[in-house]
Design brief:
Elements: H1 3-6, E1 14-18, H2 22-32, E2 37-41, H3 44-51, E3 59-62, H4 71-80, E4 89-93, H5 98-107, E5 111-114, H6 119-174, H7 182-197, H8 201-204, H9 210-219, H10 232-235, H11 243-249, H12 252-270, H13 277-291, H14 312-327, H15 338-347, H16 355-363, H17 365-374
């Protein structure tokens, strides 16, 4: 390859020649210098030092029979270093035995040239392997670019999803008497519970998947999305609801699940080739919206589910939602002191709440209190 072939602005490829015979270094150097930048090393140890210098050689011509460290040992060492493991190595040797060639190739050499070599043949092989390396490097660069682009777009989509999710949840919250940071607190509570429960034998297998844990936590802000369907005179009523009004209020759980599942159905109809992850996310959100008012003993709503019939996202939000409501100020009630709220949660173990979720909560009370302080509303009592 000439400079013209390489491009006038491109640096010449660097080739490292390794041979203990000075004459061989001179002959190969004279042959290669018109087209390439050449480095030389007269021992295996020196070859490893030179190969590690910048710029890393594009190709190495390596003699096998050298005193001390032979060519095979040099090649093994090159393959063990991340900086040099991808440099193509051509063995140049006086040996002419099939087993020697087979051994060199098995160690990772790309070619094998015997002495006395024909200059035209050697140059052709050097050129060929340099072209192959350039092609591999281009492919690696393209793959790295594509990987980075996929990560960038995935992160961008995640941010869009999170913003959209929070906007929808905030829309529901703005129509409610909930406090401003309720969504953030309940999401943080659930994240804490998930991390603790994954260590428990009963939940270890189900929560082993980090993506599932993330999905459950991300869905938390949508648990009350169904409240957008509740009339204002009921949703915003400052006093106690009548039995008829309470019946309407309880429909928010089913309304939220129906809305989310209807969204899934519409997208599936319009985009049957759409990836499944968004659907899994919305289904988890629908489970949480629908079941976070179910009770462990079967006395909850809307379906009266009992025990493990209640989806895990709903069981987690049931505790997180009640705890936050207890310690928060509302227009119709004063906040409850932390110790009393914890006692009430413990009393509902096995009745309102999954016993294991309550146990995890008790282990995490200090961290729950810290979350409440961090995302406190004005005059939030969580530190009490």
């Amino acid at each position: 390859m000439t400079n013209t072939e390489a491009g006038a602005d491109e640096p010449r490829p660097c080739i490292l020649i390794v041979d203990d015979a000075h004459e061989n270094l001179r002959v190969l150097g004279d042959l290669l210098r018109p087209a390439y930048s050449v480095r030389v090393a007269n021992s295996g140890a020196r070859a490893l030092e030179v190969a590690d210098l910048d710029p890393v050689p594009a190709l190495i011509l390596l003699d096998i029979m050298m005193p001390g460290m032979d060519g095979y040992s040099v090649l093994r060492a090159l393959k063990q270093s991340p900086r040099t493991q991808d440099i193509p190595v051509i063995f140049v040797t006086a040996l002419d035995a099939a087993e020697e060639e087979e051994m060199g190739l098995s160690l990772g050499a790309v070619d094998y040239v015997t002495k006395p070599y024909k200059p035209a043949l050697l140059l052709a092989r050097v050129r060929s392997h340099l072209e192959l390396k350039r092609a591999r490097d281009r492919l690696a660069d393209q793959n790295a670019f594509l990987d980075a682009e996929v990560r960038r777009r995935t992160a961008e989509n995640e941010r869009v999803k999170e913003v959209t999710l929070m906007a929808l949840a905030t829309l529901a919250e703005k129509r409610d008497n909930e406090t401003g940071n309720h969504l953030r607190r309940t999401q943080a509570y659930i994240t804490l519970l998930l991390e603790r429960l994954k260590q428990k034998p009963r939940f270890a297998e189900a929560l082993e998947d980090a993506a599932l844990r993330d999905r459950i936590a991300q869905c938390a802000p949508l648990h009350d999305i169904g409240k957008v369907g509740i009339p204002d005179h009921i949703l915003l009523k400052p006093g106690k609801l009548t039995p008829e009004e309470w019946t309407v209020m309880k429909t928010h759980a089913a309304l939220g699940a129906e809305a989310l599942r209807e969204a899934v159905g519409r997208v599936r109809f319009a985009r049957p080739d759409a990836p499944g992850e968004p659907f899994a996310f919305l289904e988890t959100a629908a489970q949480m919206a629908e079941s976070h008012h179910e009770r462990w003993d079967g006395s909850g709503y809307p379906k009266g589910l009992r025990g493990d019939e209640i989806p895990l996202p709903g069981r987690l939000m049931a505790l997180a939602d009640v705890f936050d409501a207890l310690i928060s100020r509302r227009p119709y009630k004063e906040p409850m002191p932390l110790a009393r709220a914890v006692a009430m949660i413990r009393d509902e173990r096995g009745r309102h709440f999954d016993p294991d979720v309550v146990d995890a909560f008790v282990e995490l009370v200090d961290q729950f209190a810290e979350v409440a302080r961090h995302f406190a509303d004005d005059e939030h009592p969580a530190a009490a």
